Amino acid sequence: MLARLSLFAATAALLLGCVAEEQDRTPEPPEHRIPVSIATSLSRPALDLDVEQAEALVAGDIDSWAALTGQDEPLRVVRADDAPDEAIAAVLADDAAIALLPADRTRPTVRPATVGGLDPLDDDYPLTTSSDRPLDAHARVLIGGDVMLGRRVGANLAQRGDLSAVWSGIGDLLAAADATFVNLESTLSTAGPPQQGSDSFGADPGVLSGMRDAGIDVVGLANNHVGDYGTEPMLTTFRLLRDAGFAVVGAGEDLASAREPAIVDAADVRIGFYATDSIGETPAASPDSPGTNRIDAPPRTGPTIDQTALQRARDDITTLATQVDLVIVVPHWGTQYTNVPEPSQREMARAFTDAGADAVVGGHPHWVQGWEQHEDATVVHSLGNLVFDMDFMRETQEGILVEVLATRDQVLGVRPLPYVIDESFTPRPVEGERAAVILELARQASSPPFDGGLP
């Protein structure tokens, strides 16, 4: 018996030793590199640092803005550690503060500095730190404003013999995004009586090839021009867009189809687009007739907001939020030729974000308009024209693309990309003073924190 016990004890010791040895051999968790975002207040100009400045800031060797901008004022560095939202809140409360946080934990309410001209989510961004987790997958979505490919735009394209020429200035930019949306204010058939006289917009269906080549994925039709030539051309437009491979949102053969969201998968992020129209001219869809997803509202389609239709939209958005990672609502609303949003826009925007929208990006006014922040959701009231022949005032020839950066869990940034529409109706990106003029028009009508500057 003693011999057996001794043998058992020896065997157990040997097994325990093997287990301990095996535990010693357990591999360390892999080390990842996470980009470090240097986040500043929107009230400060965009900051581009060289690598030496960025590294000194992270090391704690800089305590004055003089080393970064030449301004002799104290600088406070707030490290996110495990509380990025608190670090961002510190920057919102104190524009002398800078937050250091993982690039996939930033927010639209602060401005990430570039390092060596590179954004924190660019592949070669040089400022990184070790992490026990990889960088979260993120998608880059571009949203463009009103696109009109008929009237003088269409005549110009026909004269040039290139129906895709209007995209030559920004096509590469659009195509580089993981998903791209535009609002198309043109029918693709004119086989019916014009409903708005010379303001009836019909485009050659051949424009669709250029739109595809420009990387456009989702086409919004919740607007006052998709019905410009009557019912049959409107139905033809729906069919031609879908046959060409576009996702369509905001109008349809009946109310059920007009309410349907467009859902796309981009860079491991599932994105849902939902569109509404509050302008009119195009018929509102009904249970058995085609048209737009209408919410009657001031100033064009009612003295007050149709609360039944607004609640219907809220319910649709809440349902969509359970199906996707990112919800973008694109309303057609407001007053033309002003940068100031209507009270009805603000009320509807609040309803959309309360229902689950992560971003609301509007159109129709033909000027850029102000921005708002509703907790974690950003509202851009109007992007201005993207492609149009309104060359009778400066503001109608200016606009912004909006870039939404998002992971599956949160929106990281909502950024304006300014452009100017040239004499051939082609939008071209701008920087410097011309860009500043465009952004200032939006800033003047924005709410905090965007009243201090846009991202």
Key structural traits:
alpha/beta; about 450 residues; D-Maltodextrin-Binding Protein, domain 2; about 30% helix; Purple Acid Phosphatase, chain A, domain 2; six-stranded mixed beta sheet; eight-stranded mixed beta sheet; globular; disordered N terminus
Overview of this protein structure:
Keywords: Signal. Belongs to the CapA family. Residues 280-304 are annotated as: Disordered. By secondary structure, the protein is of the alpha/beta class. It has 2 domains: 32-131, D-Maltodextrin-Binding Protein, domain 2 (3-Layer(aba) Sandwich); 138-452, Metallo-dependent phosphatases (Purple Acid Phosphatase, chain A, domain 2), CATH 3.60.21. It has 12 helices and 23 strands. It has helices at 2-24, 51-59, 66-69, 84-93, 151-160, 171-176, 207-213, 231-243, 255-259, 307-321, 343-355, 432-443; strands at 32-40, 48-49, 76-79, 97-102, 111-112, 114-115, 128-131, 138-147, 179-184, 218-220, 247-249, 251-252, 262-266, 269-277, 291-292, 326-332, 359-361, 371-374, 377-380, 385-387, 398-407, 411-421, 427-429. The strands form 5 sheets. Strands 8, 9, 10, 11, 20, 21, 22 and 23 form an 8-stranded mixed sheet that branches. Strand 10, helix 8 and strand 11 (247-249) form a beta-alpha-beta unit. The protein starts with a helix and ends in a 12-residue tail after the last helix.
